[in-house]
Design brief:
Helix content is 44%, strand content 14%. The chain has a domain at 6-93 and 148-191 and 202-211: Lysozyme. The protein has a five-stranded mixed β-sheet. It contains nine helices and five strands; from the N terminus they run αβββαααααββααα. It is of the alpha+beta class and 214 residues long.
């Protein structure tokens, strides 16, 4: 498996949740959508401050970044090994969260054939302790093929003036994500340079892909 699938995309969304406008994370970094920050290469602040975006735009930018910025280093870390869908999904989740797939010892151990050592070493990246549940889910997916996504995600609002995420609402996401994959193949997604969409009702019969160019 060398490409992102809807199931992989949904797994990461389940871990991260979605915030449709810019907020400050636990250390004050402006963040948006599925945990996207300026470090991704897509400008978050002030682009999305006080400007909630449609879910289609949030997910469209996320998919573009996942394929263009995060998939290549993950595939490079696997080398000539061809990962399964579960292995690729877990490695992408790890890299999306840490940005460290290139220096993580667990992937090097796995590629070298040390499966037991790799399983154990993955949990070395469970600091702070709040990350341990996520690492265990990634561990179970990578080594045991156990998916945790159920096709839904928590979509959060933003409390002001603190700009911290407010209480989330669980939303069904599978149909939206699968429709987006069906509408545009990954080659088309790679050509997108996302831009924010205005906070106005979308004209009828316009796809999420069309709105990325607004």
């Amino acid at each position: 498996m060398r490409e992102i699938t809807p199931r992989i995309a949904l797994e990461l969304i389940a871990h991260e949740g979605i915030v449709t406008e810019a907020y400050k994370d636990s250390v004050g970094v402006w963040t948006w959508s599925v945990g996207i920050t300026d470090a991704s290469g897509h400008k978050v602040f002030p682009r999305y401050k006080d400007k909630p975006q449609p879910l289609e735009h949030c997910i469209g930018v996320y998919l573009w970044l996942l394929r263009e910025k995060y998939l290549p280093p993950v595939l490079a870390a696997f080398g000539t090994y061809d990962p399964s869908e579960a292995e690729l999904g877990a490695a992408l989740s790890f890299h999306w969260n840490t940005g460290a797939i290139g220096r993580a010892s667990w992937i090097k151990r796995f590629v070298a054939g040390d499966r037991a050592g790799a399983r154990k070493a993955m949990l070395d990246w469970a600091r702070p302790a709040a990350l341990l549940p996520r690492r265990r889910l990634e561990q179970a997916l990578f080594f045991d093929g156990q998916w945790s996504e159920d096709g839904t995600a928590l979509v959060y609002g933003v409390a002001k003036p603190s700009y911290q995420p407010s209480r989330g609402k669980r939303i069904a996401m599978r149909a939206l994500v699968e429709d987006m994959f069906a509408a545009q193949d990954q080659t088309a997604l790679s050509k997108v340079i996302p831009a924010p969409t205005p906070v106005t009702p979308a004209p009828p019969k316009r796809s999420w892909f069309d709105r990325l160019f607004d």
